[in-house]
UniProtKB/TrEMBL annotation:
InterPro entries: 6-hairpin_glycosidase_sf, GH-type_carb-bd, GH92_a_mannosidase_put, GH92_N, Glyco_hydro_92, PNGase. The keyword Signal applies. Residues 293-756 form the Glycosyl hydrolase family domain. One of its GO terms (cellular component) is cytosol. This is Glycoside hydrolase family 92 protein. Pfam families: Glyco_hydro_92, Glyco_hydro_92N. Keywords: Hydrolase, Signal. One of its GO terms (biological process) is glycoprotein catabolic process. Gene3D superfamilies: 2.70.98.10, alpha-1,2-mannosidase, alpha-1,2-mannosidases domains, GH92 mannosidase domain. It comes from the Bacteria. The keyword Ion transport does not apply. Residues 36-287 form the Glycosyl hydrolase family 92 N-terminal domain.
Length: 779
């Protein structure tokens, strides 16, 4: 790919870097962590956060710029929007790229001078404790965030460990220093979220507390423990229930202030310090279980006060994690690539205390024996590419992920695997039972270390839980009837794929009766296909398709989940060959797929469906149901069209700037798509051992695999003048097929692409050269 001229935003970054001291420049550029820009996705609809965290860590310590309300829900799902000009504080938990908001726990704000107890209005500086800031004062790196709060002239620095958030605040000389702790705010657009909270100061100066919220996951509990590097000279704990701005709630009024303990729904603590001769250090541990566990986490993981050492440890953790792939590419491409890899390694998050305690979906405390318990599962998204990427790059961690899913199922009151869970609790968001393909994909690709029979039992339980999402009717009729369950077409299609993945794992385990049952269920996609219109549609209980039908209509109440017929009619990853045949063969299939990308669509058409963004015709790269579409040309003998579409997507949907993501990163799925596509292959059908080949976007990439072997992808000449694949060789031998097997990657070797100006219309034509599907499996 040709090197593009850097944007003015990127130039400003480079100028700022050149102004640093030699020691600072070394810190920025050492290892691949120096090529990560956490600002990417913090603007627009990316929903990422810029703050400090470590790979899959429990803490995501980041600035929050909006007070949660109905106006600041969707775009502020990560607490921060790049276009904002003030910060209300720094909280310790955040989602990365989610399409829904929550978290934002334990918010701290350093204050010099007078203290105000309310956040205030961003449009009226000085109306509250929030402070203005400039992006020029921000330093944003993997594992580190710093900013100057201009209204207080306080320099705030943040870094993180697995369970500890570390703060360092430099106050101006001659000004009284205060730290405000606010337990009221949360990143959720729902009034009255805090059900109860507690706050107390211990004799040794430690501060602990808990709160229970009714946000996305009702009844979520989180506790914390906090210590300061300087002694507190005075403190006041407030219960501000009388000030709650929520209709229908009448609090008891301003309760008596207290120095040692408070409880209620609207707690604020103000901690005062003598004039400081050195920066104030603060360390905070969290726990989903108890204050005592939070203190244990703090004692175990939070020794000492060497902030710079903790920052270096966070940086080293990212350098180690990102070292799994070395790439040669232009500077903007490298920034996109390593930031994508960084974003793909944020979730699921550690959700377990140092003693092994965690909270399950039954709201009870459980204990992990011999594994780390992880939660934050956006399973409708991450099963597609983010989890397959982890199975390839970090199979050991995938083992813990699967053990966590099984443990969550065992603690579930419903006896099924998570759907969309965080901090152990279930939200029931989105559709499908996509923990099933996460487990099946890992197993098929050789991940072990978990109880496969327990996993299979959990998968079958999830696939046969009749009360969930129309599954009872699906098992009786072979489809989800739209007159009984919304979004019936999408649910039918996604259940059928999940069934297929379950069948694959059962077959690999020698459970042939189970495999036969679910492979048969996997053909249910055919009940959704309407040969007359050529689209996937929802049927009613009587077997007739719902009328009237408009393939352009999207959104809740339609036949589809966050999509329309143009986007969902391609969702048969387990049987693309069968779909090609149903649509009339290769020529018709390719022609209709072209119509998806080439359509003239006004983005305003989807203004009522927030998640449908990144449009190229009807193709919506900002939302997951479209993510495999460009690769489907491979299955119809037109891989050169896959190559052309991928370039179209890569050029238009990703950029190394704050609004450089076309849609929600969705806990790493958008980023994992980028990583796979940049490498030249993609897991269209997780739970198979195959990757559809596209074309690479880096001249050379070396995967350093856990086995100690290397797998290298290379391409030449790689520039805009040579966008098509002429020939592919694997370990020096011509590769006549347009798919790669997982075993070929983990065995090590080299995949080389010879690029050319014109399409190679011969490569990938034969049926045996195409990626496999149910209708073409020979095994």
């Amino acid at each position: 790919m040709a090197i593009r001229s850097p944007s003015p935003w990127l130039i400003s970054v480079l100028v700022a870097a050149m102004s640093l001291s030699p020691q600072q420049v070394g810190a920025v550029t050492s290892g691949h962590a120096g090529e990560v820009d956490p600002r990417i996705g913090t603007g627009g609809d990316g929903h990422t956060f810029p703050g400090a965290t470590v790979p899959f860590g429990m803490i995501q310590l980041s600035p929050d710029t909006a007070m949660p309300d109905f106006k600041h829900g969707y775009k502020w799902a990560a607490g921060y929007q790049y276009g904002d000009s003030s910060i209300m504080g720094f909280s310790h938990t955040h989602f990365s790229g989610s399409g829904h908001s929550d978290l934002g726990d334990v918010l701290l704000m350093p204050i010099s001078g007078a203290v105000r107890l309310e956040p205030g209005d961003p449009a009226r500086p000085g109306s509250g404790y929030r402070s203005r800031f400039s992006h020029d004062s921000e330093t944003v790196e993997a594992g580190y965030y710093a900013v100057t709060l201009s209204d207080y002239n306080v320099r705030a620095e943040l870094t993180a460990g697995r369970r500890i958030g570390w703060h360092r605040y430099s106050f101006p000389a001659g000004q009284p220093a205060h730290l405000l702790l606010d337990l009221r705010p949360s990143i959720y657009d729902y009034p009255g979220k805090v059900l109860w909270s507690s706050l107390r100061v211990h004799e040794d100066g430690s501060v602990t507390g808990c709160r229970q919220t009714r946000g996305w996951a009702p009844g979520r509990e989180l506790c914390f423990a906090m210590r300061f590097s300087q002694p507190i000279t005075s403190r006041t704990l407030y219960n501000r229930e009388a000030e709650l701005p929520y209709k229908g709630f009448k609090g008891p009024g301003e309760q008596a202030q207290d120095r040692d303990a408070q409880s209620g729904r609207a707690l604020v603590g103000v901690f005062d310090f003598a004039e400081l001769k050195q920066p104030l250090g603060v360390k905070v541990a969290i726990s989903p279980v108890s204050e005592a566990n939070a203190l244990d986490n703090l004692d175990s993981d939070g020794n000492g006060w060497d902030f710079d050492a903790r920052r270096a440890e966070a940086r080293a953790a990212w350098d180690k994690a990102l070292a799994v792939i070395d790439v040669e590419a232009s500077a903007p491409m490298r920034s996109n690539f390593y930031t994508s890899l960084y974003h793909a390694m944020l979730s699921p998050t550690l959700s377990m205390d140092v003693n092994g305690d965690y909270r399950g979906p039954d709201h009870q405390v459980h204990h992990a024996d011999g594994f780390d318990f992880y939660s934050t599962w956006s399973l409708w998204d991450v099963y597609r590419a983010q989890q397959p990427l982890m199975a390839l790059l970090q199979p050991g961690r995938s083992t813990d992920f699967i053990r966590s899913l099984i443990a969550a199922r065992e603690a579930s009151p419903f006896g099924i695997l998570p759907v969309w869970a965080y901090q152990g609790l279930e939200t029931w968001c989105m559709i499908g039972y996509h923990a099933v393909p996460v487990i099946a994909d890992a197993y098929i690709k050789g991940v072990r270390g978990f109880d496969a029979q327990k996993a299979l039992d959990a998968m079958v339980a999830s696939a046969t839980y009749a009360p969930y999402g129309g599954l009872g009717d699906y098992m009786k009729l072979g489809y989800v009837p739209i007159d009984k369950e919304p979004e019936g077409a999408s649910k039918t299609l996604e259940y059928a794929y999940d069934d297929w993945s379950l069948g694959q794992m059962a077959k690999a385990m020698g459970k042939h009766d189970i495999a036969k049952t679910f492979e048969q269920r996997a053909t249910n996609w055919r009940h959704a296909y309407d040969a007359k219109t050529g689209f996937m549609r929802a049927r009613k209980s009587d077997g007739h398709f719902r009328e009237p039908f408009d393939p352009d209509v999207a959104g809740y109440g339609s036949d589809y989940t966050e999509g329309n017929a143009w986007q969902y009619s391609w969702y048969v990853p387990q049987d693309v060959a069968g779909l090609v045949a149903a649509m009339g063969g290769d020529t018709n299939f390719v022609s209709k797929l072209d119509r998806v990308f080439d359509a003239k669509v006004d983005p305003a058409h989807f203004q009522h469906v927030e998640d449908i963004t990144g449009l190229i015709g009807w193709y919506a790269h900002g939302n997951e149901p479209s993510h495999h579409l460009a690769y489907l040309y491979d299955y119809a003998g037109a891989p050169w069209k896959t190559q052309a579409r991928l370039k179209q997507i890569m050029d238009s949907q990703y950029a190394p700037k704050p609004d450089g993501l076309a849609g929600n990163d969705d806990l790493g799925q958008m980023s994992a798509w980028y990583i796979f596509t940049a490498l030249g292959f993609y897991p269209v059908t997780p739970a198979s051992d195959e990757y559809a080949i596209g074309r690479p976007f880096v001249s050379r990439a070396t995967l350093h695999l856990p086995s100690g072997k290397d797998f290298t992808v290379s391409a030449a000449p790689l520039d805009d003048a040579h966008p098509f694949v002429g020939q592919v060789t694997l370990n020096g031998q011509p590769l006549g097929r347009v798919f790669l097997r997982h075993g070929e990657i983990v065995a090590g070797g080299e995949l080389h692409f010879t690029m050319q100006a014109q399409p190679n219309r011969e490569w990938g034509q034969a049926a045996t050269a195409r990626p496999a599907a149910m209708s073409s499996y020979a095994h």
